[in-house]
Design a protein that fits this description.
Elements lengths: L1 H12 L3 H7 L12 H20 L2 H6 L5 H27 L15 H24 L4 H25 L1 H7 L7 H31 L6
Helix pairs in contact: 1-5, 2-3, 2-5, 3-5, 3-6, 3-7, 5-6, 5-9, 6-7, 6-9, 7-8
């Protein structure tokens, strides 16, 4: 049943801007650009999808189907995790066509950046989705809260490339000698992303089950 709901997410619920924001992964080719900003666009696509769902009574339609509420939440979280991961994969693909020049605006395009991107998406998910399913009408306020956390974390990550010696010398680098440290950050980021997103699912399912859905 979850697979069918997930198909509904991509076929019926997904906002048309999501593919556009996926294409913005090519912005990694821009010289001296703060790359963590690129991942923000996908959070915007998720927001538009939820906003469109509010206008179309998507959740009301879904709960009228012979499915459990937690499966509705699971499909939306899976959708979000898939497009978020796709964004990171596409950024890493386009990064292969960059020159090896250092990024003067923040982190270089390397595995550490992708690990931090997973963490940023995990933070967004844990803030946005439980609040969204607690009150489906206040999508905008929920998005502002989630993106505030996102940008605070993003600024700290980018700033660390200038003020934290380990980040500056090992993580903000295109040197092959720093690769083990960067891969460790990537693995840690994937793990945190999975844990935070799972926690977001559990909290969101609980919030949705606590109130009746009205059209």
């Amino acid at each position: 049943m979850t697979s069918r709901l997930l198909k509904k997410e991509f076929v019926l619920a997904m906002h048309p801007t999501v593919p556009l924001f996926l294409a913005m992964a090519a912005m990694v080719l821009i010289p001296n650009y703060p790359f963590t900003v690129i991942f923000f666009y996908m959070t915007l696509g998720i927001f538009f999808t939820c906003l469109q769902g509010r206008e179309n009574n998507d959740v009301f339609y879904s709960v009228s189907l012979p499915v459990e509420k937690r499966d509705i939440v699971k499909a939306r979280l899976l959708f979000a995790c898939i497009v978020e991961t796709a964004q990171i994969v596409l950024v890493s693909f386009f990064a292969m066509f960059r020159s090896q020049a250092a990024n003067a605006a923040g982190l270089d395009a390397n595995p550490a950046l992708y690990g931090f991107a997973f963490i940023l998406f995990g933070l967004f998910n844990i803030v946005f989705f439980p609040a969204y399913y607690a009150n489906l009408q206040k999508v905008g306020i929920t998005f502002i809260k989630a993106t505030t956390i996102y940008f605070i974390a993003s600024c700290l990550i980018e700033a660390s490339a200038f003020v934290v010696p380990f980040v500056k010398n090992e993580l903000d680098s295109v040197s092959s000698s720093a690769l083990p440290y960067q891969l460790a950050v990537l693995a840690s980021g994937i793990l945190l992303f999975a844990l935070l997103s799972f926690a977001a699912y559990r909290l969101s399912a609980k919030r949705l089950s606590e109130h009746d859905i009205q059209p």
